[in-house]
From TrEMBL:
Glycoprotein found in the keyword field: no
MF-aspect GO terms: nucleotidyltransferase activity
Name of the protein in question: Molybdopterin-synthase adenylyltransferase MoeB
Swiss-Prot/TrEMBL keywords: Nucleotidyltransferase, Transferase
Organism field: Pacificimonas pallii
InterPro entries: ThiF/MoeB/HesA, ThiF_NAD_FAD-bd
Domain THIF-type NAD/FAD binding fold: 12-247
Keyword Nucleotidyltransferase in record: yes
Amino acid sequence: MTGLTDQQLARYARHIVLREIGGGGQKQLLAARVAVIGAGGLGSPCLQYLAAAGVGRITVIDDDEVDLSNLQRQTLHGTADVGVSKSGSAKAALKALNPEVRVTAVRERLTPENAADLLEGHDAIADGSDSFTTRAAVAAAALTLETPLISAALGPFEGQLSTFRGWEADQPCWHCYVGDMQDRPGRSCADVGILGAVAGIMGAMQALEVIRSLVPFGEPLSGRVIIYDALAQRMRTIALAKDPKCPRCAAA
Ligand SMILES: [Zn+2]
């Protein structure tokens, strides 16, 4: 296998034996650059699986600090990290997991003003942030930059996940899906509660879809939304069409 070191052949052996990934796919992962917004409940497992998979460069964007109440679900951080920036704590944890990965910690809130600058140059964007304002800014930048957006969201016992490639003629964008929804005060995880493992399931699945967008295999999730119901322990997938009147992605 050319181009991979003995260490890499050993570390990624279980990927390399997969027909769907192989040595070529592993090299694509090593060369890839992914941005993850939010190093919280979704970002923790998502970042862990991306770093473990050998995604070469990862940008972690989070302006928050680790709070004791986060540790019930944000598994990237430990008790000793309470009070530390989440992006910095995430960087340290990911470097311990896989020193080969180049992690950039951005301790900033992503806004409509800085979104395009922060996200430019990435091959995929994973959004696990906790506000609609941030999500809308990420989605607008991903559409402009023509970068796949893998977006996950959580409720107390539920999760949603999709991949958006809205710049393509037949693919919906994030705005086609959510419309003009606004932040609803009192509806964040901090306010309504969440079963921690639900975040783990959705964040791990988000990492899977990031990897799929970098090394295509199986059926892409674009044009479909996964809806996970932890109370019924059931998952369904619904089709999502491009809105021909979408103000963001429809052809003029
Ligand atoms: Zn759209």
